[in-house]
Amino acid sequence: MSRLEEPAAPIEPEADASDAAWQAYTAASLAHERQYGGPGRILGIWLVVAGLVGLYAACELTLDKLSYWQQIAQGQTPTLSCSINAVVNCGNVINTPQASIFGNLPNPLIGIAAWPVVAALGVLLLSGVRLRSWHWLALQVGVLGAIVMVTWLQFETTFRINALCPWCMVTWAVTIPTFWAVTGRNLRRFAYGNPIAKLVYDVVPVWIVLHVAIVFGVIQAHFGSRLWS
User: Fold this and answer.
1) Would you kindly state where each structural domain of the chain is located, as residue ranges?
2) Which end of the chain is more exposed for a tag (fewer CB within 10 A), N or C?
3) Dihedrals φ, ψ of 58, to 5°?
4) CATH number for domain 36-227, candidates 1.10.10.1100, 3.40.50.2020, 3.30.200.20, 1.20.1440.130
5) What's the CA dihedral at 54, 177, 143, 44 to 10 degrees?
6) Phi, psi at residue 194, to the nearest 5°?
7) How many Cα atoms occupy the beta-carbon half-sphere of 223 within 13 Å?
8) Contact 15, 192 (CB under 8 A)
9) 71-117: per-residue pLDDT in tens?
10) What is the per-residue pLDDT across 124-147, written as a single tens digit (0 to 9) for each?
């Protein structure tokens, strides 16, 4: 069947329909999504993009950290390409305790390990591979951990370190939409019809915009004109 002959998506049953009807609808919706694209294909594309962008940012931050240490070892004052002004300056962040949450393991190495997995899952989705429930649950645990870590780092870098790392902010920019996109997909799959879950999966873009706006608003309110000077 060609794309022009694509059948309509399954019709959502009434709210008081039986569990069997809701299960059949969910299965039919997922089958339609896999075969004809839609939200699943969009999510797959995003996971590939986010994985590649996140990996690039993690690699750049790792190289900057190596350069920082090398310059320190040579007795030089570190000068990094990611230092833009007094506030947006990774040199003020890169060697703090917050930059290595797990002991001596630099945070970007976590990204180097994790983001390729995200991109690979996106490739599998675009290839039509059906991921098992445990894949999605594992990804949910991963993005939940990522958003908790990112939120903590946003607080620390804004209010305690008083500086912003550009490559860290790139990571934030892909982590936030990834969290909401995966969470929305999983709520749609595992809690379809739940009124609280619907508040998320029906308006995922709204949550993404709201989350980003809050983060940017807090940063702007804290740093003011120094952010752009």
Assistant:
1) 36-227
2) N
3) -65, -40
4) 1.20.1440.130
5) -80
6) -65, 125
7) 25
8) no
9) 988 888 888 888 889 899 888 898 899 999 888 889 999 999 999 99
10) 988 877 788 889 999 999 999 999
